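Comment thread on ticket #2218

A.B. wrote:
> Attaching the input chain for the structure job we discussed in standup.
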Amino acid sequence: MRIETYGDRSAMSRAAAKDAAEALRSVVAKKGHARLVAATGASQLEFLEALVQLDVDWSAVEMFHLDEYVGLSLDHPASFRKYLVERLIRPAGIRHYHLLNGEGDVQRAVEEASRSIAEAPIDLAFVGIGENGHLAFNDPPADFSTEQSYLVVTLDDACRRQQVGEGWFATVADVPTQAISMSIRQILSSRRILCVVPDARKAAAVQTCLEGPVSPLAPASILQTHADVTIYLDRASAERLTAETRGPVLPGGN
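C.D. wrote:
> Ran it. Output below, let me know if you need it in another format.
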């Protein structure tokens, strides 16, 4: 696990975007195509904005969706399908993508997504860490053992409060109680993982997941076991880490 800490969110986002673009270009150069898992949420906004401005052959990238609410319409402001279309798919010009449809037959959506992602390994995955330590929508205690690629999960109160705090919903009652999420094992099967985690409100979860034991009670702690993961932090999200874990605070995104 490599940790890079930057002086502010913008520098962190630029550095993560540069790393992601270089990784995608390398895979496309070697294989002719790349398979990518994309994350959503407030933590990924500046990162994705920076990424789509960089030189990547997006026509050679096949994108998979990390998670989506059950029962939320495509036009809802909090829809992760809407988020990805507006912030990644359309600006980048991605032609081949798989979005999770949480409306209608949810089990069918899970099965279709699972079949598609099982066709070949994932080259690169973008993830974040939730305020409760969740990874995708795998809230604590997360299922570390299931071999399903996607599953329907129940969101805990802390996760739902985070969505309100980020402005996606007006009240906790408005936040769906279930979601489709990529499983922990499927995330870990990615050849490389970039974890982008800005903001002080994530500092406690960052400390627990990066310095504490690997535990289903801190789902993102499982990233400690992955052979090729880079954690991107800003000064605020890293504020509770020891200097040894945090490393030097880098001034810019170069």
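A.B. wrote:
> Thanks. Noting for the ticket: The chain has one domain: 2-250.
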